[in-house]
Amino acid sequence: MSLQEAINAGVEYQNILIDHGYTPSILMAGFTDNGGAAYCNSWARVPTVYEMEILIEADPSNVYNWPTSSQYLVNDNGEYVVMPITGGDETSYKVPVYLTCVSGVSSVDINIHLEDDSPVPADGIQSASVVVELRDLEGKPLSDVIIHIDLDGVAEAPSSVVTDNDGYAIFGVSSTLANTVSIRASVTDFLPVPPSVSVELEFIGDLSTAYLTSFWVRKKFSVPDGKDYIDVLAQAEDTHGNLVEGAEVELSFEKLFDFTPEFPSPLPSKMEPTSRAGQSVLRLSSTVPGRYLIEGHLGGVTFREREITFGWECDAQQGFPCAWEQMIITHEEEDEEHGRVKVGALPVFSVSEMLFLDYEFNVEDSYLEESGKNVVRLNLQDTKDFCHFLGETGYAGSISGRVASYSYVEEGLHAEFKDEMDFNQWSVGFWYWAPEFPWLLPPPKEDYVFHLSTGNSQIEPSDGVMYPLCELLFEEGSPMFDFYKDDK
Fold first, then answer.
1. 20 to 30 A Cα–Cα from 275, which one of 51, 118, 293, 487?
2. C-alpha to C-alpha distance for 344 and 341, rounded to whole angstroms
3. What one-character-per-residue DSSP string does 151-193 give?
4. How many angstroms separate the first and last alpha carbons of the chain?
């Protein structure tokens, strides 16, 4: 191709103006007839220069001031390469040229992909296989080519790999951090522009090592109407601290009060699998009143949470007192000869784990009256505007000591132990049950009286509507217990 033809083909005039005259620029390589462009676009490992011959037409009319003795070619480094004229007629000369490839022309076809694009557990052991394929523009595989690997993200991978006889290079990428990693493969020894490609890989928390890191209840009370609910939340992580998706937290419930034994609550045995954020939320609802201790289990870790309650809120319109402000325990001892103990003879007396639903008591003071009666006052802590009625009007707790008389007062509601007794532990609870709708009725408003001896007993009122049930657990030899509503 002549210089004029090169210009006509699109080579700009200024691109061939060199120093004292005109010379074919590097772009001329793209317009040679004897394989210069094909060489640049197909051969992978291009040397710095390539010797070839091109036919250059002379300019006897001196239109372009073309030199007849020698000419120059500029290579990619900006250097002039002398092209001596070796012979020819008056119109053309055949000259050897040291050719470099045209800037901007890609000389290889490079591809990258994952053997499996599924997320990989970030356990530092499992890895994703990355495949790089290298071919020339004619589709022939390029072997023994160094592929450079760069990562954008936290992961481990080789810094470079070499293609095999089929033009492939396969390597693994692993991580201990759940994150998305961009993998870039490039070939830096290709001229003029090093080609590169990239692919993204996702690392996730390792489900096989998931364990429970958090377990809590957003609210602890719910009305047993099948609609209200209690939120139970859990979070799972793996051994490297990554949040884990798909972990199933197992649940266990310990029933603290068996209010309706004929109607057990349908409580689940596990939570929904954790989300991508490593969390699971379970909404517990019930149509049966009850109080439970809930536990979560995952990966050998157990979290024990406070009790959850399915019950009703009490208010003044129901005619049922929510709680008392003060409980008074009186204690009286007698010796064998003189009866009452003298003033100043205080017995050993303690109260522990005294509970009324969500309320706690502590001992305010203890003193001995002149009559020989020991008085202990218990104050209600954390008083609330409402109570959680489970059908229970009593309490649960333990007392140790030697007591002759025990009583509490709650807006005219009294209970007393009779006679002397030695005991170490007791627990008492009351609830109400109606045969037709055992989980929907508020407490009865009418007067009631029942009497229990040591152990368990139950009495059905004469009208057959309300069914008070009381459980009393005493040590052996405990006295009888009276419970009545005071109308005085």
1. 293
2. 8
3. EESS-B--SEEE--TTSEEEEEEB-SS--EEEEEEE-TTSSSS
4. 126
Residues 323/359, Cβ–Cβ less than 8 Å: yes
182 and 219 both lie in a single domain: no
Tell me, yes or no, whether 323 and 470 share the same domain: yes
Q: Do 224 and 197 fall within a single domain?
A: no
Give the three-class secondary structure for 438: coil
Structural domain range at position 455:
316-485
Q: At CA 57, angle to CA 53 and CA 61, rounded to 5?
A: 155
Question: Distance from CA of residue 445 to its chain's centroid?
Answer: 49
- Please state, in angstroms and rounded to a whole number, the distance separating the CA atoms of residues 374 and 407: 12
Both 132 and 213 in a single domain? no
**Is the same domain home to 332 and 469?**
yes
AA letter at 226: G
Number of folded domains in the chain? Answer: 4
User: CA dist 46 to 25, 78, 192, Å?
Assistant: 19, 18, 9
Closest of 132, 129, 179 to residue 157, by C-alpha: 129
Question: Is residue 389 located within the same domain as residue 452?
Answer: yes
% the chain with pLDDT above 90: 25
Distances (CA, A) of 464 to 48, 185, 198, 323: 107, 84, 80, 28
Distance CA(417)–CA(483), nearest Å, equals: 9
pLDDT in tens, 247-297: 999 998 887 765 554 445 567 888 999 999 999 999 988 877 777 889 999
Summarised one tens digit per residue, pLDDT across range 64-97 is 444 443 444 444 443 444 444 444 444 444 444 4
Decide which of 99, 122, 146 is a domain's last residue: 99
Phi/psi-derived region of residue 278, left when phi > 0, alpha when psi is between -120 and 50, beta in every other case: left
Residues 462 and 336 in one domain: yes
Residue 174 pairs in a beta bridge with 156
Asked whether the beta carbons of 80 and 74 are under 8 A apart, the reply is: yes
Last residue of a domain, one of 204, 226, 258: 204
